[in-house]
Amino acid sequence: MSLAQVEEEVIENETAGEFEREPVPQSQWKSWKSFLGMYAGEHAAGTEFVIGPLFLTTGVSAFDLIVGLFLGNLMAVLSWRFLTAEIGVKFRYTLYFHLEKICGKRLVTIYNLANGMLFCFLAGSMITVSATAVGIPFDMKMPQLTDTMPNSLTWVIVVLCIGVVISLIAAKGYSTVAKAANWMSPFIVLAFIACGIVSLYQLHIDSFSEFWNIWGTGGEPFPGQMKYTFWHVFLWSWFANAAMHIGMSDLSVFRFAKKSSTGWTTAGGMYVGHYVAWIAAALLYAVYLKSPEAASFLNNGEAPPVAPGPLAYNALGFFGIIAVLLAGWTTANPTIYRAGLAFQAIIPKMSTFWVTILAGAVATIAGLFPAFAMKLLDFVALYGFILAPIGAVIVFEYFFGKKAEIQSFYAEKSGIKFNQAVFWAWVLSAGIFYGISIYLDVFLSFLTLPAWIFCGILYLVFSKWVQKRSLQFA
Asked: Which residues cross the membrane (predicted)?
């Protein structure tokens, strides 16, 4: 056995196979098939059953939806391929360990806490989605778009049970998460396609022009919803996963990849999930909108509820219930896994298993509150906006650090625990552009890219000043 192989075995034993604070050794690199299954499963998932219908509530037109989604998802794939995967296979660190080398332990603790909590809330919305399927046999009251609190004891019990199962699967580590996604994703993809076909039949759609006319030239948004245009759809779909690609969270995933070209596998999630699945789910809601129940809501000036379980059950029966349940699992699993890694960086002495259980517990509590799922378009835009700018620090250091003549991994090499250059770049970029969103009433996804670029530029400028100043007083 070579010295390198011995070192790899020691690292694997010390890190329980997750390598939270070491580069992933070559023996643990995984083929593109693991990533294709994971991304297809994660993004053809429970939240798709919510997002698709929510697009209908915004009064979007056919062109804006179909073309906007196609181009927005393309930009997301390119972001994963040429930014996240490129850096992930170069260093093979988790996002949190990578940031610790740049930011210092104290600053990255703040980021990890925010990151972990936001991922838990996102996973909680997926648990909510699965609960709408499990509750059907129990005649459970479904949440409305305006609901924020649990509406029954049955709801609480169902959410708690789902949360326990999902947390245990996520706590088993990346390999288990990838296997679960591979097993479930073909079934889920088939379910979305079946939902779309059945819905077209129920809507009596016989031609492409009739399909196009489901959205037509658009209309007024439902009560309480924002009107979406092409740019809303394009930018929202690009940055729906901003924290994972331009925000670099998926460094923690791509560190296991053999090559950076593995980043192309994200297209499986974007076009099977964020394209086909969103449109198929919108068709489910279009069927429901023709029902007397939906008409009564609209007549009362209220938006009809978006409960994935009943929508899928109406199209596919119990097959639809199973599909929604599994779809929620395959998205919540890797999301809780990512949250666990964030908490791991804060409390490194706790094992990966137990920090993931902790993340799962927070996600389950969040799942009790329907607001995270019912306001998913707004929440996804917000969490991407908050977390994406910090990814610019990694990207700009990697691509432009040498030209700017700044020291890479400055916190590690200088021994500081709080890199002020990172802190002020993040706070100023997020604060300024969020303020613009609030005071000028600008859709938040319009400002994600400007905030990201601004943060990267500020980081280079501030780093040059901070590092030069530290040399003067050394």
From this structure: 110-133, 153-171, 183-203, 228-248, 269-291, 311-332, 353-373, 379-400, 421-440, 446-462
User: What angle do the packed helices 352-367 and 105-134 form, to 10 degrees?
Assistant: 50
User: Which ranges in 20-152 belong to alpha helices (H)?
Assistant: 32-43, 48-57, 62-79, 85-91, 95-103, 105-134
In terms of CATH, what superfamily is 32-388?
Hydantoin permease (1.10.4160.10)
DSSP per-residue codes, 165-203: HHHHHHHT-HHHHHHHHHHHHHHHHHHHHHHHHHHHHHT
Whole-prediction pTM: 0.84
* Nearest by Cα to 168 from 366, 342, 16, 333: 333
| Tens of each residue's pLDDT in the chain, 474 residues | 333 333 333 333 333 456 767 778 777 888 888 888 778 767 777 778 888 888 888 889 999 999 999 999 999 999 999 999 999 999 998 888 899 999 998 898 888 888 888 888 888 888 888 888 888 777 777 777 777 788 788 888 888 988 888 888 777 765 666 666 667 777 788 888 888 899 999 999 989 999 999 898 888 888 878 899 999 999 999 999 998 899 998 998 899 998 999 999 999 889 988 899 899 989 989 998 888 888 888 888 877 877 788 888 888 888 888 888 777 777 777 778 778 877 876 787 788 788 888 888 999 999 888 877 777 788 888 988 999 999 999 999 999 999 999 999 999 988 899 999 999 999 999 999 999 999 999 999 999 999 999 999 999 999 998 887 765 544
Delimiting residues of CATH 1.10.4160.10 domain(s) in the chain: 32-388
What's the helix, strand, coil split of the chain in %, to 5?
Answer: 75, 0, 25
> How many whole angstroms separate alpha carbon 134 and alpha carbon 136?
6
